[in-house]
């Protein structure tokens, strides 16, 4: 497979996740940023948008995994381990939706922990300021939620932390797509 095409999967995968989440929110008038988790959209019994939400996460996780295995691992060897865990966890969140109870909670926690660890590893491995900002902002959003500093649902820190992580992932894909030969890239990636 062409390296540029594989790099573009690092952009397309996350976009599919957020498009499916956006469409699911639009189709779910009951969804509330004050009370809901994003996973509520994927509840197979209670959400009519569940097929869109879960299929989007499954496809996004698969495309991100292909991106990591084909081109990202050469760019950031150690980060790729945690990014694979994140992509797999994203697929498991869709597979074990909220109907499954504790298994869903476990894979959801694994998703956000692995995204945080991937961001932190990328900071160390590639000296990325964007990944550092993603880690810090994500951590703050979860800490403020945990301390009940704002009265919003868990969907808020889920969205903030995942969007921040996705920014450096997409940026890495853009850099790799523009530099498929593998020459050393800018450190801000």
Question: Which labels suit this protein?
Answer:
189 residues, mainly alpha, 72% helix, globular, disordered C terminus
Task: Give an account of the 3D structure.
This protein is mainly α and 189 residues long. It has one domain. It has helices at 3-26, 50-75, 77-95, 102-126, 129-146, 155-178. It is globular and about 50 Å long. The two termini are 23 Å apart.
Tell me the layout of helices and strands.
Layout: H1 3-26, H2 50-75, H3 77-95, H4 102-126, H5 129-146, H6 155-178
Helix pairs in contact: 1-2, 1-6, 2-3, 3-4, 4-5, 4-6, 5-6
Q: Level of helix content?
A: over 70%
Spell out the helices and strands N to C: HHHHHH
* Alpha plus pi helix count: 6
The major β-sheet equals: none
Overall structural class, as computed from helix and strand content, comes to mainly alpha
How many domains? The number is: 1
What is the oligomeric state here? single chain
Q: How many individual β-strands?
A: 0
Overall body shape: globular
Q: What is the distance, rounded to the nearest whole angstrom, between the alpha carbons of the first and last residues? A: 23 Å
**What is the residue-mean pLDDT, rounded to a whole number?**
95
**Nearest-angstrom radius of gyration?**
16 Å
Bin the strand percentage.
under 5%
Low-pLDDT ranges? 185-189
């Amino acid at each position: 497979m062409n390296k540029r095409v594989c790099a573009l999967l690092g952009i397309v995968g996350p976009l599919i996740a957020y498009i499916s989440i956006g469409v699911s929110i639009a189709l779910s008038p009951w969804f509330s940023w004050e009370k809901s988790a994003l996973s509520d959209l994927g509840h197979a019994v209670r959400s009519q948008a569940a097929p869109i939400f879960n299929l989007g996460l499954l496809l996004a996780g698969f495309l991100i995994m292909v991106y990591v295995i084909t081109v990202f691992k050469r760019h950031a060897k150690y980060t790729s381990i945690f990014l694979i865990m994140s992509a797999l966890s994203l697929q498991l969140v869709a597979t074990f939706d909220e109907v499954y109870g504790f298994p869903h909670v476990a894979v959801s926690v694994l998703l956000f922990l692995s995204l945080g660890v991937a961001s932190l590893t990328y900071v160390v491995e590639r000296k990325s300021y964007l990944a550092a900002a993603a880690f810090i902002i994500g951590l703050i959003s979860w800490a403020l939620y945990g301390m009940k500093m704002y009265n919003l649902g868990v969907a808020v820190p889920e969205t903030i932390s995942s969007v921040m992580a996705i920014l450096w992932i997409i940026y890495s894909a853009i850099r790799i797509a523009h530099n498929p030969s593998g020459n050393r890239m800018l450190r801000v990636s």
